[in-house]
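User: What would this chain look like folded?
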Amino acid sequence: MNYNEIGFKCGLEIHQQLDTSKLFCNCSSEIRSGKPDKMFRRRLRAAAGESGRVDAAAEHEQKKGKYFDYQYYNGGSCLVELDEEPPRCINQEALQVAIQLSQLLNMKISDQIQVMRKTVVDGSNTTGFQRTALVARDGFIETSKGRVTIQTLCIEEESAQLIERNKTHDVYNLSRLGIPLIEIATGTEIVDPTHAMEAAEKIGMILRSTRKVKRGIGTIRQDVNLSIAGMPRMEIKGFQELKSIPKIIDWEIRRLEHAKSKGEKMASEVRKAEPDFTTKFLRPMPGADRMYPETDVVPIVPNMDKADLPELIDEKAKRYEKEFGISRELAGLAAHNHLDLDAYAARFRNVKPGFIAEFFLTLPKEIKRRYDLSIEPGKYADEILARLDQGKVPKEAAIEILVEFAKTGKADYSRFAGIPDGELEAEINKIVESNPGKSQGALMGMVMAKFRGKADGKKIADFLNKILKK
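Assistant: Here's the prediction, encoded as structure tokens.
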């Protein structure tokens, strides 16, 4: 498809939960489940925005005439979430993360941040609005297909979690309501569907580089805004996986082209991305009528002094590969899993950084595959790596030691004490002499079976070669 010929325009909105306490209270941001401590019921109505008009999307929701039941969990919600107490001061940790991200995205940060109310009456917020604040604008990221502008970065409240939808009412979980949410909106420089996926991936990498974002299904969401020449803009919500972005965009383009060829009249609307890569109508497109100032929160002057910038994950991966001489794949795994290879390499200088990365990232997978055991190597890293660093056990023993920890919660290090070179060579010689006619591979297997975890595999191979040549 020639996306330029059809007048394809596309931009992204990325929503990412932060791993801090809530935005306007001190409640935990852990999303709770199970039997709630209390239940509350609300009915909502659409209020006029700053323009004096009621937003079309809000009016559409109000016409459904539903009421809403809210699950309340002690410690995860308070009177702020119930809209029975004014919001407290904005979470400074969350705000500083927003400022960090603004700088990483080359944006201009607002001198004064004004919290606004965005009308939402679908039940996902007890107040009937969502608090949101513009932090920065006019930034950019670089991609393989050119620069993509970042128009705005906002910090806002996450909505309540939908649990059940019925004809007369919906049920929501309040423990998600109020979690700090970063909203990043790009410009329309995205040239095709795969470019949209690349831009979303790049922004996701920058978000994770702060180490202050939540991970897992539902903690990050991508919305796509798109249009083709002669047709209105569509907003597609509900992307959970990056790989689905190109397929759904292509389907929506075909839907718009078909409607255009039939001469159908269409209006801008919000649509939901479906698991089969199609879309369906959700509601009319919201507009400026939904916004008005939040009078319960004073304007904020951002503190720029504390915005120390983290090293980007992609840059750290390149540095690990170059400085430690490890493979690109292993360096990428270390950086994306936030393994502080610098600190471990400095502490354990006699252990190669590549092996340290394997210890944390690949040995647990190998143990799961070979023994069907789960292990968190970080719990035992200091004591095992210290023994490797001091030469008390060989690196080949690491996997066997971890297996013992996985099985019993402890390890007998005396079983893995290294064997002196002279003794090792003599033992290998005995195995060779007592197995005449055996191939080198068979002999290597016998020696490894006897000394696994006690001697370096390369050292064993070198001694075996030396003996066989004699």
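The chain has two domains: 9-293, 421-469. If you want, I can go into more detail on any region.
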